[in-house]
Amino acid sequence: MGRWEPDARGRLLRAALELFAEHGYEATTTAQIADRAGLTKTTLFRLFADKREIVFQGQGELLALVTRGVDEALNDASAWDRMVNGVLVLSGAHAHEHRTTGRILDPILARSPELNERAVFKRSAITSALEGSLIGHGIDRWQAGALADLGIRAYYSGYDLWVAVDDSSTLADHVLAQITVLRGAAAQALEAAAPQPHPAGVRSADG
Amino acid sequence: MGRWEPDARGRLLRAALELFAEHGYEATTTAQIADRAGLTKTTLFRLFADKREIVFQGQGELLALVTRGVDEALNDASAWDRMVNGVLVLSGAHAHEHRTTGRILDPILARSPELNERAVFKRSAITSALEGSLIGHGIDRWQAGALADLGIRAYYSGYDLWVAVDDSSTLADHVLAQITVLRGAAAQALEAAAPQPHPAGVRSADG
DNA sequence: TACCTGATGCAACTCAGTCACATCAGATGT
DNA sequence: ACATCTGATGTGACTGAGTTGCATCAGGTA
């Protein structure tokens, strides 16, 4: 346990968020972060793979979560229901405190291309995990891809809404609502493409 | 024109691909690349924003392409047709030589997390460009998002197929085929979710 | 008291990326 | 020919991320 000051990771995270908010991400050095946390650069890099990971710590667990959600759906669940369950289990991982963190993080993230790139990568990793889990349950790979895109899109826009408002709502509430919205939108978009009952030939829009 | 040896960018790209293939991306230093190209590190970083961009040079133009494709669709084109046109114009940008480059690049890319992250970022940027263009034409934002995801997914899996086979087919051929496949798959996945014929009033997240 | 263990510090290192300044090859004008 | 202008390249020093081997230190155990 904590022989030295406890919770080195937490202290580093808080120090980093403070400094990022004050001076921006790029203008903050890892030495400064370690310094404010009462540690050294070496320890920082022992606890985090790189500077960006300070901000995204724990996102690795999300991959396991979404997979678990897909796996734990009922045996006769449809592809759609498996996807929904994956995204819902994913959403369940966020406590109310994450809302505050999200509010602090968002502007920092928006101003830093480097952080943005990592964020996109995490999103992609989660999407791939969802897609892979669905495929693992025998779902057609193209359906799995489309479902994963839709589900993760719902998750992220639900997250944005959840962070933006200030009520007692759960992340899962917003995500579920977004799934419904996106399902309707996707259906409408596809309807315009394939009005015939049997999805056959497409007319390309020659340029 | 070339007062010195011409085509510095091309020489650097070739040198980089050689070295990456020989020793891997991470094990190759920028100085080595510049050296083999008969240049210096400084010049390398004058021509490329960073080490990763050597491999992804020119992807920035793709954003403009997909936007142009969406813009140049017929005035009364449906949301779907605008998306298709955007993706097709995007596909038209690749000559046959890109196939060879793709074959060399793919294994390098697969072995390097760093390059992978950049690749994902580029994909995301193209998706956002497509989504934004569609929204700019008055298309509902949720539809735009879903359409962009589907279109770019078709583009990338079409690209994979195009690179994998060795015939006279065009990238656009494969992408178009993938759009059809994905449209069918998405329709099927949604059908299981919403069996009711009228996807009517969708309630947005309470806010 | 002696030992063990895991978390931390220290110092030196490599490499990506930046910058100010010098240089060099060719085009232009006289 | 000669001087000059211009843009592409080289030089060398610098910052900061990330790594590594070794020392140290706090606490638990015998």
TrEMBL record, chains A, B:
Q: Which InterPro entries match?
A: Homeodomain-like_sf (IPR009057), HTH-type_TetR-like_transc_reg (IPR050109), HTH_TetR (IPR001647)
Mind listing the UniProt keywords for this protein, alphabetically? DNA-binding, Transcription, Transcription regulation
For this UniProt entry, the molecular function terms from Gene Ontology, in alphabetical order, are: DNA-binding transcription factor activity; transcription cis-regulatory region binding
Q: What is this protein's record name? A: HTH tetR-type domain-containing protein
Q: Name one Pfam family in it.
A: TetR_N
Instruction: Enumerate the spans annotated as HTH tetR-type domain.
Output: 6-66
Q: Show the PANTHER family listed in the entry.
A: HTH-TYPE TRANSCRIPTIONAL REGULATOR BETI (PTHR30055:SF234), HTH-TYPE TRANSCRIPTIONAL REGULATOR RUTR (PTHR30055)
**What residues are annotated to bind DNA?**
29-48
